[in-house]
Structures are given as structure tokens and as C-alpha cells.
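User: Fold this one for me? It's 1-acyl-sn-glycerol-3-phosphate acyltransferase.
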Amino acid sequence: MTASVSVWLLTTAAILFVAWQLHRLLEAARRANRTDWGRGWMNLIDGLNRLFCYRYHRLNVTGLRLPRSGPAIVVANHVSGLDPLLLIASARRPLRFLIAREEYERFGLQWLFRAVKCIPVDRERRPELALRAALRALHDGEVVALFPHGAIHLDSDPPKRLKAGAVRLAQLTGAPLLPHRITGVRGAGHVILGVILRSRARVTLYPPLPVAGRDTGDVLDELARVLDGRTPERGRAVAEAV
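Assistant: Here's what I get for 1-acyl-sn-glycerol-3-phosphate acyltransferase.
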């Protein structure tokens, strides 16, 4: 057997092996998918994200207690870039995240943010446009998700006043306000390291926060106590990466 034939056989075998592994991965992603995003390729990405969270981060999830239909508002503390992946992987409905416009326009990722219908927030010029888009989504029966701290914020950081958008959306629409607390992320404080480093992450779901007839500031204070870990964990741990 000549050297050229040997190289050709090895190359062909390598290509077939890679193709077989890719096929297996896509089949596993198809089976792992739990949320219908309205597009087949998006459902595959959903499955890949769940595999990533379940197998790499070993996410043990029983599922967020979202209503089967109708609007809802998911809020959580924000400790790393892993946070939205964990929330999406633990939900059975699409989550529409509000994110800063500069993040929405990040090179190479805008196509994905657009596909999952993220709502960009232009905090410098017209933040009310994002509020209106979120209101339309809730009126259409969708689930809106946001991080009221507005940026990564650790328990060790100085206390920070929460942004009122989530509470105002709940007051205007009557949608349930569902707080979560994320803890134990190994790469806490970082966007990329939070995704790369294996974590002992935990997502705890607390009871819906009542907003009707209450002062916005009082609701924000109660929400801050939950997100900053100053409220006992009455909620159920719904996701854990060991």
C-alpha cells in the first residue's frame, strides 16, 4: 500500500468518524429539546444548550414552575454569563430576555439574540422602547426574563438599587413576577469564565411576588432581599449543577 493511499484512507476514516459523531450529537440534541422555538434549527440549539447544561455542568433540573400558557416575568440575580443558559435549559417555554443594546449588537452573536427574540435596551437614549416591546410580548402571552441588577452583581458587591422595569411590567399586565436566585457558579463575576468553568450552580425558585396595590419601592425592596440572599430559601431548588 502506497503512502498516498494510506493517507487517503486515514483521512476518509477521520471524516467519517467526525460525521458520525456530529450525527450522534445532533440526534442527542433533537431528543434533548424541550421547548418549541418555532424553528427546527433553533430547537436543535435549545437541545444543545440542554446537553451542555446537563452533561458539562451536570444540571439537575425539575423545571421552572412557569404557567403552561399566558404571560409571566422571570427575574434572577446575575452572577455570570452562564445564568441565561441555565434558565433557558430549565424552562419548557421560550424566554425573551431583555439585554443591553451593546450586548445585543456584540459581533458574532446578534443573529442568535435576534433568533431567540431578545429585547435590546438602549439605556442611554430611549429605554422606554424596550419597555413597550416587553409589554407587547406579555400581552401576547409570552415569558419575559430579565436581571433587575442590570449587570453582573455578586453578593460581595456593595448593595445596588434594582431597576424597576420588572415590577412595572407586572403591575401593568398582571403577569406573575417569578424570582429566582442563582448561586455557586464557579466563574462568578465573569461572562466567559462562568460558561467555561464547571460549576456547582444552584437555581432556587421563590414564590411569586405580589405586586397588585403595592408601592413599587416596597416590591423592589422585597425582590432585592430575595436576589441578594437576604431571604431564607423558602423556594424549591429547581436546578443544580454538581
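One thing worth pointing out: Confidence is low (pLDDT under 50) at residues 235-242.
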